[in-house]
Design goal:
The structure is a single chain. The protein is mainly alpha-helical. The protein has two domains: 136 residues; 80 residues, Orthogonal Bundle (Cytochrome Bc1 Complex, Chain D, domain 2). The chain is built from eleven helices and two strands; from the N terminus they run H-H-H-H-H-H-H-E-E-H-H-H-H. Strands 1-2 form a two-stranded antiparallel ribbon. It is flat and about 110 Å long. The protein starts with a helix and ends with a helix.
Length: 271
């Protein structure tokens, strides 16, 4: 019993010694506060920062690089779009209302058929109609602030003076954009084909695109499951003679489920 009490007393002494050392002898480490979401004040943003936002939109939400790239040749390269504006405004084929580089670049995004670079128009239109959609509508849906940012980026990319001013109401526009309700679903498959721009690359409907496989009889060649999978994951299986990364990979998020099924059913019926 005597030995037991000695062992118990020694154990308690060791425990209290360690506890005291842990609380008093070791410096306390104060954990860093949790990270907070970064808030960008567009009202005080510099033009350099605004150009940076334009670049992100150009390569991201705007999906510009899917067509305007050296790999696919589906649309003209834009590195010199700003520097060739003067010549395009004087071109007899120009039918827009722009008067300078800035207004021309904006117009080229929302009214792309105002001037179509030779060889890049819809087939059968003699380069009078562009296959490019209005970026302010449809699945892209860029607002005025985003279009201004991309315009500033294109001016910077072309090596000309950036004349775009950071919109004073940029913060309000961004807030309104966040509060916008989801777009209304497309009512017909023709709306889907037009807004998503399928005809820019494929023969489908009334369009004669050549950058992607001919879809006019796709229902006789592929199963419903294969067609659906090809839309959702276009790089999973590449049709012989075509390259990967030419088709957008985000149609699964661009289209509502009902729209996707409407498109699949339409393609399945093309026999």
């Amino acid at each position: 019993m005597k030995n037991f009490l000695k062992v118990a007393a020694f154990s308690l002494l060791v425990i209290f010694s360690f506890a005291g050392f842990a609380n008093l002898g070791i410096p306390k480490i104060e954990p860093a506060p949790p990270p907070t979401e970064e808030k960008i004040d567009l009202g005080s943003m510099t033009i350099e920062q605004f150009v940076g936002i334009g670049e992100k939109i150009y390569k991201g939400k705007g999906t510009c690089t899917l067509c305007h790239n050296a790999l696919g040749g589906r649309a003209p390269l834009l590195e010199k779009a700003a520097t060739v504006t003067a010549a395009r405004l004087k071109d007899p084929r120009y039918k827009g209302e722009a008067t300078d580089i800035e207004s021309y670049l904006v117009e080229s995004m929302i009214k792309p058929s105002a001037f179509v670079v030779a060889g890049f128009g819809k087939k059968g239109t003699n380069d009078a109609v562009s296959p490019m959609p209005d970026v302010s509508t449809g699945s892209i849906g860029m607002n005025e602030v985003e279009i201004a940012a991309v315009t500033a980026y294109l001016q910077e990319l072309g090596g000309v003076e950036v004349t775009v001013k950071v919109p004073e109401d940029a913060s309000d526009s961004a807030a309104e954009d966040d509060e916008e309700e989801q777009r209304k679903p497309f009512e017909t498959v023709e709306d889907i084909l037009d807004e998503v721009g399928c005809g820019a690359c494929h023969k489908v409907g009334e369009d004669e695109g050549e950058q992607g496989p001919d879809l006019t009889k796709i229902g006789a060649l592929r199963t419903e499951a294969h067609i659906r999978a090809s839309i959702l994951d276009p790089n999973a299986e590449i049709t012989k003679g075509f390259k990967k990364d030419l088709m957008p990979k985000d149609y699964g998020t661009q289209l509502y489920a009902s729209e996707l099924e409407m498109l699949v059913n339409y393609l399945v019926a093309l026999k």
